């Protein structure tokens, strides 16, 4: 996998978490700008999903197994959109907290994806 993309996603996810956490501290729900940020992070994760699947299709293998790698890729892809959808149902500061939590989960999933892939592709 591309290490630089994994790091970029982790940093973007933590930035989104801080941004939405700041909105929650100010008692604000998620706004349109937050959803644009979520879309940017989701596009990065979509690129990672495609790259990961292409590498698997070329015969490269994750150190800890293909099934768990694909499961984590799909989980990472779903983390921010799922929390964004939940924030639409909770139009209070707790919607912002939900997105912040989803973004932190994505950052943790990125660390785990890096571990799962290991040095197999290097």
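Q: What amino acid sequence fits the structure above?
A:
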């Amino acid at each position: 996998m591309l290490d630089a993309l994994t790091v970029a996603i982790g940093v973007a996810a933590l930035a989104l978490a801080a941004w939405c956490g700041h909105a929650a501290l100010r008692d604000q729900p998620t706004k349109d700008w937050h959803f644009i940020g979520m879309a940017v992070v989701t596009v990065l994760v979509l690129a990672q999903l495609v790259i990961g699947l292409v590498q698997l299709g070329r015969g490269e293998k994750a150190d800890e197994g293909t099934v768990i790698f694909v499961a984590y890729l799909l989980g990472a892809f779903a983390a921010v959109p799922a929390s964004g959808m939940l924030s639409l149902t909770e139009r209070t500061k707790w919607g912002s907290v939900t997105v912040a939590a989803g973004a932190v989960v994505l950052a943790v999933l990125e660390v785990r994806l890096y571990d799962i892939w290991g040095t197999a592709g290097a």
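Q: And what stands out in the fold?
A: The mean pLDDT is 93.
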